[in-house]
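pinned: reference chain
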Amino acid sequence: MSEFDEQEHLDSEDIEKDDSSSGDEHKTIHLSGMYENWFLDYASYVILERAVPDLKDGLKPVQRRILHAMKNLDDGRYNKVANIIGHTMQYHPHGDTSIGDALVQLGQKDILIDTQGNWGNVLTGDRAAASRYIEARLSKFAGDVVFNPKTTAWKATYDGRNKEPVALPVKFPLLLAQGVEGIAVGLASKILPHNFIELIDASINILRNKDFEIFPDFPYGGLADVSKYNDGLRGGRVRVRAKISQHDKKTLIITEIPFATTTLSLIDSIVTANDKGKIKIKKIDDNTAENVEIMIHLAANVSPDQTIDALFAFTNCEVSISPNSCIIDEGKPRFIGVEEILRSSTDNTVSLLKQELEIRRNELMEQWHFSSLEKIFIEERIYRDIEECETWEAVLKAIDKGLKPYVKNFHRKITEEDIIRLTEIKIKRISKYNSFKADELIEGIELEIDEVNNHLEHLIDYAINYFRQIKKKYAKGRERKTELRNFDTIEASRVAAATQKLYVNREEGFAGTSLRKDEYVCDCSNIDDIITFRADGTYIISKVTAKTFVGHNIIHINVFKRNDDRTIYNLIYRDGRRGVTRIKRFAVTGITRDKEYSVTKGTDGSKILYFTVNPNGEAEVIKIILKPKPKLKKLSFEFDFSELAIKGKGSQGNILTKHGVKNIVKREEGVSTLGAREIWYDDTVKRLNTDERGKHLGAFISNDKIFTIQKSGNYKLMNFDLSNHFDEDMILIEKFNPKKNISALYFDSSTEKFYLKRFQVETTNNINKKIDFIGDNPQNYLLAFSIDRLPQLKIIYDAKANNKEFPDEIINVAEFIGLKSPKAKGKRLTAKVIKKVEFIEPLPYDEPQETADTTEELPNQTENPEIEKPELSVSTKKQEEKVIVENTENKKDKQAGRTEEDETQQMELDL
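pinned: its structure tokens
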């Protein structure tokens, strides 16, 4: 029994007969059977007839019916959308609203429909005007690739009164070019739009059996990370970001928005993030018209770079899109990747082109057949054979007999229909028949038949040429708008604006943002974590809240930076109540929130004696003062933390001394023991990194800077923070060398002459500021630059414009102009008309030998004025310069019997 027979059998069992005393028959229909059938029918209808596109033409039924109706109305002029909607209702049974919405969406995609009037704005989300006010017609592209009644299969409409296409003969990957989104019953389809030109190139590669890749291209532009696209299948993900740039120090500008968002929804998300304290902004101006322009004015003392990352992390400036490539193939839903869709579309295009060629060949053969019959019929005067015929049958028989000697010259059998057509030739045509023109006509037909046969024999080459012609005719203005990049992962806690203030009550052991009467710790955000160290050697990481208990005897509390391996904690602790004193250095990179950990061995009665926090791994020199005891003459010694290796937070540490410690003081500030950081620049994501990706910029210490030059004619000095953003028009990035000179050649629009200038970069109060060096006129432009010591410039003069021949000239830039300020105008290059100018190979230059290099010193050096030495120090009271944890225990040390020499030897062994 088949599945359907079994279902019918079950349905019959759902109907029970109830014979009453009156003999009437009552039927009871169970709901289970009804729901099984009705739900399946409804789900199948929605999937096949409404929400999911067909693989062959890439259209939903409503879209196909709209295009068919527009083709019937097409006369080259615009038609009222209301008229198109009414005409489409002959084929589509779901009312004018669904047709109107689908038509507006098709028009906004700007591929198949030319529009006129207010069709809304996809950027702002504004709706189109009423259908009676707007007009549309089929585009020329649609006329070339979508319609051909000779290759179209037809079916009856829903009411049986008209015919509509089963699928339009689309000879282009329309489904991937437009994209589609639909929600059916039990499944959904979401195919992202792809680039018009790239689809054509990929189709040509398919025909040539070459590899290809296609990725989404959104009409709004923006930036996209397609590393997890997964061929458009379910489970893939595309991250799309707005294009944000720094307009000035206090203003950001958004010029492109992510796909599936509008300027209104984007601004709402920014306002919401600001209200929640995730970002700090002053106001937003929306100047969007034809192009997006959203101005974000920042609050005072807010980093633009950090705000850009925060916009990506907390607002719709970055959205994640999950594709789900579902189509209808042969009446069934299928989940296939975009590459398979493109291959199927390309195969379908080749098949349709073959059908068109075969149809055209058949038409030409018929035309040749009748033209040849007509020529023989007239030239051989066969029409005279019918003069004596008295019946119709005799006429046909006479003509057939007259043609028999020539039958072998024809490609097919001469039928009765052919003879009837010959009888319909008018006497006027016979009398004016021109044999020469007839021969030319037949010869032209034969040449076209040969051409068609050649195309059929070389069908792939013909299809490739077809795609090339489409690209040549319609590709203008359809270049890729979305820039493909690999996005870095933004940690929300690192970029959230510090809109809250953290306070601590050390006596009661509470910390939070609501304890405004207690001790202020630092600024924080409401998604930060805080780390708290206690005097007994335990520490805990907890989330920032209004008020939370973090423990008594707090010696350090601050915002915790996860995965921060450069913040080093220097620690000395006593193991137990009377145990040895140990010393250690460690970092805390990541632990479980709200779980208590210990930096000691965990012995009961352990106590921290000395504790410092060093943001850049600084290692200070300390002096340890021991408790007096019999036979112990040396009561103090010094220790340098740089001699101690950095280990894990769970290490026990080394033994510092076995004697009681009275107190510990800091003798010297420390320098970083972590050494310089190797920095790379990855042009793919336009970010700095320490993972050896991209261009190596060098080793950086605290005062080092990054130097960039922009194509717009400005330079910028910035620190080497990994969260830095870089301008799109950046043409140079390197580690800043203050000894280098910049030689710049630029065009001055006010004088319409080329100017040359040399300058040194000014560093005073210019960090993270754009310094313009080609003038304020927006028409000025930078032609070339050089960072060589002794650059040379080659000038080729325009003989025609100068009315005289001038030899090429090579200029030594250093002799031509001296060093000036970046704001100086420079020196005019020449008064003659220049044809070409460029920097060439510089003159050799030997760097002077220096006796001492103080730019990058070894980590263990004790003094370097170039290096900043930030110190984060903690005590039971708020202190900012140093931490001294005094041991107030006055109990006598029970250890005795050792000489001073023995104690010294034991300390050396411990160390």
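why pinned: The radius of gyration is 42 Å. Residues 1-23, 851-911 have pLDDT under 50 and may be disordered.
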